[in-house]
Design brief:
The structure is a homodimer.
Chain A (H helix, E strand, L loop, with lengths): L2 H17 L5 H8 L3 H11 L4 H23 L3 E6 L3 E7 L14 H15 L4 E11 L8 E12 L2 E10 L2 E12 L1
Antiparallel strand pairs in A: 1-2, 2-4, 3-6, 4-5, 5-6
The structure holds a DNA duplex (30 and 30 nucleotides).
Chain lengths: ~180, ~180
DNA sequence: CTTATAATTAGTAGCAGGTACTAAAATAAA
DNA sequence: TTTATTTTAGTACCTGCTACTAATTATAAG
């Protein structure tokens, strides 16, 4: 067995664990046709922790992630609000929100930020019935901080008209008009 | 110690584990001032699994959730595609995509479905530069299946104009025009 | 006040999925 | 062939339990 056989096996090991972090050393040794000890030496060499630690990591990561994702991450942080008048929110983007190759933030994150701010300024049970003139001026890159400003421009009966502008370092990247209707 | 003392402790135990599933029996026994054995009897009675199982559950739940959420759930399933012409996708909605009280699907899910289909029909490195006439006809309720149809209406140099219509049981719920620009 | 019953605590063996270590065997390179 | 590398074997120990038996303590009933 040459050195490259070892390297190849370790590469396979990484792939297997990445696609299934819940795999035991025993199963790995069966899949790669080597002893458990070899698997353990490989994990050592690659600094891959044992099953329980991996599971705990997955659990902790996603536990936190799902919490923040459901709470505010997708939405941004509300930093100012005058009910039925205006509101400002911030959203720190990262690579998980972007296309892998281009690192451009996916549109629905920007949309979600705008939508949730629009909903926040009209604090009522509302439904979005229309959006117009939604425009991306410049693609947003992962890592940039988005600042959204919402303004209520008109209230007509049960209908609310809200403009949302999003900027990166005061450069406009997105603007939209939302039409909201109270239920 | 009355029976209600036991019930009270078990109630506290449920609360502690719910807010922190990563807590060991030992810590629980310290917090609740009873022996480890009592904690274990309580867990038995309440059918709460041991720490490792709890961690594994959290990991598995969220692992699957994040995967499907990141991969295609948010996007829908592509069922038909003529490149640069048209495409159709389906998205099964559920309660995790909806507002808790109203069960109305959040707008950005619908938007994401439309956006990703628009991107899929133009199979190139593109950026969305504008969207117009985005309109929600009827709020979508959790559990309904969305069907998105995209049509490329015009190609002008590097710009692509794509219309996306979304229906629930052939009832229109959303329509939009995307303007995409190849990079 | 004593007894029956419920609740709690103690203690042991065993398990999964390892770590950490030592040592021997197999394979490759010189 | 000898040396170096890689792989395998084996043991003691670890955590956070389960499953079980037994003893102790608290509480309620007669």
């Amino acid at each position: 067995m040459s050195t490259s056989a070892k390297e190849k096996r370790q590469q396979q090991l990484i792939e297997i664990i990445e696609t299934d972090p819940f795999v035991t050393d025993e199963v790995l040794s069966e899949k790669l046709k080597v002893s458990i000890q070899t698997i353990r030496l490989d994990r050592m060499a690659l600094a891959i922790p044992e099953l329980r630690i991996r599971i705990k990591d997955v659990a902790r990561n996603n536990y936190d992630k799902v919490r923040t994702l459901k709470k505010s991450e997708i939405v941004g942080e509300l930093i100012d609000l005058d009910l039925n008048q205006q509101g400002i929110s911030l959203l720190q983007t990262d690579e998980t929100m972007a296309f892998e190759r281009t690192k451009i933030i996916k549109g629905h994150y920007i949309f979600a930020m705008a939508e949730s701010l629009a909903l926040a300024v009209i604090d009522a049970r509302v439904a979005i019935t229309g959006v117009a003139n939604l425009k991306y001026a410049v693609p947003v890159k992962a890592g940039e901080q988005l600042k959204a400003k919402a303004k209520v421009t008109m209230i007509r009966g049960k209908e609310y008209f809200v403009h949302v502008f999003i900027t990166v370092k005061d450069q406009p990247v997105f603007r939209s008009k939302f039409i909201l209707k109270t239920l």
